[in-house]
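[job 0412] stage=complex_fold ligand=flavin-adenine dinucleotide status=START
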Amino acid sequence: MKENYDLVVIGGGPGGYEAAIRGAQLGMSVACIEKRTYKGEPALGGTCLNVGCIPSKALLDSSHRYEATKHELGEHGISTGDVSIDIPQMIERKEGIVKQLTGGVAALLKGNGVDWLQGWGTLVDGKGADKKVKFTALSDDSESTITAKSVILASGSVPVDIPVAKTDGERIVDSTGALDFTEAPKRLGVIGAGVIGLELGSVWRRLGSEVIIYEALPSFLAAADKDMSKEAAKLFKKQGLDIRVDTKVVKAEVQGDEVVVTSECKGETTEERFDKLIVCVGRRAYAEKLLGEDSGINLTERGLVEVDDQCKTNLDGVYAIGDLVRGPMLAHKAMEEGMMAVERIHGEKAQVNYDTIINVIYTHPEIAWVGLTEQEATEAGFEVKIGSFNLAANGRALAQSEAQGSIKVVADAKTDRLLGMHAICAGAGDIVHQGMIAMEFVSSIEDLQLMTFAHPTVSEAVHEAALSADGRAIHAIQRKRRK
Ligand code: FAD
Ligand code: NAD
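[job 0412] stage=complex_fold status=DONE, emitting structure tokens
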């Protein structure tokens, strides 16, 4: 460890570690301070690699393979005999993937000459040209002060707690606990039908749990396009997820080896008993030990670090990124902000386009979107035109037994400009990248219509959705007058 660096990054999650690597690529001397441990060992990669994106996707993949093997191979003429799942083995695989990736990040930092300081970082004073950062080592709690020309705050987020359902790490858990069940709970309760509730609820349902998801809001997946959330609700119901909207949990209590959950819906009270309860009602910015009393950093009312569009705080040379600041709590948003902040520090004009940040819910089928929903576009004053295409008429989707879902495009009727793309289908998260690229290049619906999409691919449904916006889809009967 040196005493002076060009750049100190506090937090080694996807935002922080990518910023640190980019800083080193640009010739800066860089330290990345990270206090996290994973299964007792210091670990980089933040929420995303340790207890977020990656472990959840590992379990989604295992549970999907199990369910597909059990229920979907018969129609192909494949018989397997009895199918069973060894859940401890599934968890071990997930842990292996986490360790491989977090170890990979450590190797990347080392290879790029970034010092990984294992412990807590606190911005003591960010006002002068030389910023003061206190480092408290994980190993022995020893404290030292380092100085830096620039600092990036990237301390991420933690799950929100609710007083009516206090987690105990055993029966009532947060998303981290739900990644480590050693068996599928017979009955699983989930509070919050958001991204985590749907993803982790799906994992355990596929493995045999009876799942009830409580959602306080009256509408399901309120942030998604309404056509998509309606279609998703139908698909999840068919899969056996019992999603109860407009239902508030008022009490959750451990009684013996059960959790008793009391909920209210339209004045009616219901009680259910579960083996486990997952609380996933959102995440909040995490700033514990991040800022000293004289750091000089402004916070918002919600406890986020205040930043401008370029992630600059109120102090010159101090940036904040990722879940710690405004905007969606997504790993790819944190990564892009990290790179933008470093490039800005280096004097470049980097910018994140917040209008094209993709959302993906990794259920099966996936739900993904980029840009405006039909409702948002209408509210923003656009004269909206939409096109959509059902996967049931897509040859590749049918050939793969993946013909559920649809793709929808939203455009400005006056200029023909693409404003948003929405998909529910296997691989929707990859499909909507086409929309993101098209939007970045300010494409029109006509641009998408004029392109040649390979046959047979699921992407042809994007082409057909664009054609359908003008009544020209070939594999659908179009009521609209053709142009
Ligand atoms: P984090 O990843 O939270 O990293 C911050 C790091 O800073 C932490 O490791 C923390 O230990 C460290 N730290 C905090 N304070 C200090 C300090 N004072 N000193 C030193 N170190 C400190 N997003 C997606 O885009 N796609 C997904 O599929 C997805 N799946 C998810 C699934 C789950 C179950 C969860 C919980 C989240 C998921 N997310 C997903 C969200 C994603 O993980 C976060 O948006 C992302 O990790 C944020 O990155 P970050 O770098 O801002 O913060
Ligand atoms: P979320 O904001 O996606 O969903 C929380 C849900 O809980 C909301 O629908 C909310 O209305 C509901 N809720 C809140 N309080 C409630 C209560 N008392 N009773 C019942 N329902 C209640 O939050 P999350 O699912 O916890 O995920 C946290 C963050 O992690 C999200 O912001 C998301 O961006 C990120 N994440 C992303 C992915 C992904 O990109 N695939 C996956 C997991 C997590």
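Residues 10-16, 33-36, 46-48, 52-53, 56, 120-121, 154-157, 175, 196, 286, 289-290, 322-323, 329-332, 334, 362 surround flavin-adenine dinucleotide (ligand 1) (CB under 6 Å).
[job 0412] exit 0
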